[in-house]
Every structure is written in structure tokens, then in C-alpha cells.
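Dear colleagues,

As part of the handover before I leave the project, I'm documenting each prediction I ran so the next person doesn't have to rerun anything. This entry is a single chain, and its sequence is reproduced below.
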Amino acid sequence: MLEITDLAVSRGNRLLLEGLTLRLAPGELALITGPNGAGKTSLLRVVAGLSQAAAGRLCWQARALQTGDPEYAQMRIYLGHQAGLKADLSVTENLRFLVELQNHEFHSDKLAACLASLGLAGAEDRPVRALSAGQRRRVALARLRLTAARLWVLDEPLTNLDVDGQALITGWLGEHLRTGGMAMIASHAPLASAAPGRCVQVELGT
């Protein structure tokens, strides 16, 4: 499904990594590790189609990808360090906008069930500025259940979550992989156990 060939990633004039070749098939997880500054976030942004690679090729379903490809953007979901939410909008308004931005259908009943599982029952109309950092993170992660994206590209998804929240998201990941989804995740947390199939670990900065 996703093929990365001889990929090089840079930030400014600094080359962060080169020669990365990886194939990710349905049910598989690529776990990206390495010290701060090694290029984990930069790599994920390139894979998500948000930044341009310095060299190499990315293919989705045997089709070469260019930055900003709209069809690919619908099939992948990217969650970075920031929640990506508008503080003055409500939880529902934020999630409706983000889901529909990817050309997925938004379902209010599905939202209510998702928020309840995240410990945010009844928060649909609350403005995001009234939420704690942990609650904002949970709202952002709700997108994983509200779209039909096949590829999850996640940067430290367990940040600002308590033990129960981490267990919930790890469970979502396992379910996603078992049903043929794929994921590329930068994380310091041990997530390999969530992958029922193959887990490829890519260590940067070594």
C-alpha cells in the first residue's frame, strides 16, 4: 500500500536522514524512534504529504505521490504535536470541520459515542479553549474514529494522556491494524504490542 524508496529528509540546510526504504502493507505498523532532533517529525510530515522530501520516492497503491495529493490526503490522517483545534470553536465544530476537510461524512451520533469513550461525554458544545491540555489531545484523537482513513501518521499520540487514555488509544490502534489499516507512528511509548501483524522499527539518529 505505502512504499518509501531511498527517501531523504532535510530541515533547512541540514540533512536529517537519507536512504530510507520501507514498505508498509495492510495490518502493519512502522514505529519511528530516535532522540529529539533526529528527524522523526520531519519524516512523518513528508509521509503525510505535508512536506517535500529532499530525495527519493513515495508511492501509495503503486502510484507516485506528490505533496498535497488530494486523494492520498483523504486516505491518511496526520496528527502532530499540536492538537490542530480552533480554541473559539466548539468540540463539534472543530471535528466536523476536520472530518469534512478530508472528504469524509460526519455523523453526530458517532461523535457522541466517541467522546463518551474518551471520557468527554456531553462536551460536544463546549469551546475548546475551556478544555485542559489532556482533553484537547483526546478531542484531536477522536478524528481516528470519525474518519475512514487507512493510514494513520501519528506523532507521539499518547502525549498528555493518563494511563486509561493511553490504553484506549493503544486499543484503537490494535483494532485499526486488525481490520487492515496501517500506521506510521513516532513514539517513545512501547506500541509494538498493539500490532497483531508485522511491526517495523525505524530508529533515526544512529
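The chain has one domain: 2-203. Residues 2-203 form a domain with the Rossmann fold fold (CATH 3.40.50.300).

All the best with the project,
I.
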